[in-house]
Design goal:
There is one protein chain. A hairpin with a 2-residue loop joins strand 2 and strand 3. The chain is built from three helices and seven strands. The protein is an alpha+beta fold. It has a single domain, classed as Nucleoside Triphosphate Pyrophosphohydrolase (Alpha-Beta Complex). Helix content is 20%, strand content 43%. Strands 1, 2, 3, 4, 5, 6 and 7 form a seven-stranded mixed beta sheet that branches. The radius of gyration is 14 Å and the shape is globular.
């Protein structure tokens, strides 16, 4: 029996021409990713994005748009349904303790991220930034959560 897809959320946060990424350990590799993680049972997509971004980077954010929804079939056999939100950086808590596996939060330019292509957690990392740069986004009210 195959495993059900995982519902995840990620944020694209751009400030002064740089994007907030996390440098993290995934398996036996060091990779770069947007702040991202699983949506917990009963949690809204927006709340999950705010929580995951803070837990992984120490940054408080304000989601402003939906960047898109992507289905990614990972090489490990797990499928992910990933909702990406676009958010503004509010402020950083320098005393925040980052999730285990997170080495550091970094701000990188698009060009720096493109050079890291083989070190990105998945091709989705660069794709959502490219979509953001093209102006592809949707209002937050695209997300309807019942109950």
């Amino acid at each position: 029996m195959s495993e059900m897809p995982h519902a995840t959320v990620a944020t694209v946060v751009e400030k002064d021409g740089r994007y907030l990424l996390v440098k993290e350990i995934a398996g036996d590799k060091t990779v770069y990713n947007q702040p991202a993680g699983h949506i917990e049972n009963g949690e809204s997509i927006i709340a999950a994005a705010i929580r995951e971004t803070f837990e992984e980077t120490g940054w408080h954010i304000h989601p402003i748009r939906v960047g898109g929804i992507c289905v990614f079939h990972a090489p490990n056999g797990i499928s992910y349904i990933r909702t990406t939100l676009i958010a503004e950086a509010i402020d950083c808590d320098p005393d925040a303790s980052l999730d285990s596996g997170i080495l550091e939060a970094v701000w990188l330019t698009y060009e720096e991220i493109a050079l890291l292509e083989t070190e990105l957690r998945s091709p989705v990392v660069l794709k959502v930034i490219e979509d953001y740069r093209l102006g592809i986004s949707y209002p937050l009210d695209l997300i309807h959560e019942q109950g």
